[in-house]
Amino acid sequence: MPEAATSSAFATQGLRTNQGAEETVRQLLRSLLQSGQVEAVLALGKTGTDGKGVAYSLFTDPDAFAVDGEAVPLLPYMPANGGGLLSRLTLEGSLPGPVAAVIRPCELQAFIELMKLNQGSLDNVFLISSTCGGVYPLETGLEGHLEEKLPAYWRSIEQGELDEAARPTCRACESFAPEGADITIALLGEDGLDEQCSLYLNTERAAAFAQRLEGTILDAEPDGTVLERSSVERSAFREALFAGVETGLKGLVETFGRCIGCHGCKTVCPICYCQVCHFDSHECEREIAYYEGELQRKGGLRVPPDTVFFQLGRMAHMAISCVGCGMCTDVCPADIPVSTIFSKVAASAQATFDYVPGRALAEEIPLRTFREDEFAQVAT
Fold this sequence. Notes:
Elements: E1 14-17, H1 21-35, E2 40-47, E3 53-59, H2 82-89, E4 99-102, H3 105-116, E5 125-130, H4 138-142, H5 146-158, H6 168-171, E6 183-186, E7 197-201, H7 204-209, E8 215-218, H8 225-243, H9 249-256, H10 264-268, H11 288-298, H12 307-318, H13 327-331, H14 338-352, H15 376-379
Parallel strand pairs: 2-4, 4-5, 5-6
Antiparallel strand pairs: 1-7, 1-8, 2-3, 6-7
Helix pairs in contact: 2-3
């Protein structure tokens, strides 16, 4: 088992390079591959013949992290939740060799949560994350507008703000400083990101891996003023966002009534890990007699049926572990704010148990534990 990272987003040991953030991360990953310290890197990369597509990829060629290489590790885009991908890569056990993964805080939370459910392994995984400024919706990339938005994105990051075009759930996210990463890249509120970059090394392994980078040693954590201000702003946006959705039974039935039963939200959700989902099984298939009976009783029947039941059932199963990554809303063809609704319900459930998904690997998921003295007021 590898050394576990601290539960803090920052360690007291850090390094400030004299290169911009993107070049610093590229150089770090390139050196890890060249030196053989890792055998592969999981990071975002350009795809397609025109290089305009983006997907998570495993890179073994150091040249992928050259300035004009296909790897784009800090691109503010999430075509899939990287935590779910790490789970799939490590589902059968430890990786054969060390792999570095560059993922965002919510993706890291998802991976830790999945490991608690025996859906992955931390062995031979070196985790790199950053203080997060959010990502753009999938449609931004699909419509070819991603590159043009990057200058505004990085200006917002330096000011400790979020671009208004980012995913709504990103703007409402309060877990934007990673917990449990080996290396934390300080981005939010950092001046001159095109000229310098601060890395915080949370493990001895991280310190060893960063030795090839030149820079100034940092002995203290960064000024938390910007992070605190960002947290306050996000909390205010979160409150307004949650106020815009109704989570009472009537509101949920009306909103989820638009669901077309594609199950895309389930497919992209990192916490929905079952190989065979109950809602995709034969147990959920209705016999002809059911349709005949409903038609006689109502005179009409929606097809497919049970779409609201699917959404409510999924919510009950995974709300306690929801990391609010926003993937579900991004892929919904019916334009249902799935992530906002789930995040609102999850916030209530998680607060009840004083639980933050992915906060610590040793912290048990409430649904897997039982305490006799829990909710005593309900029993009485």
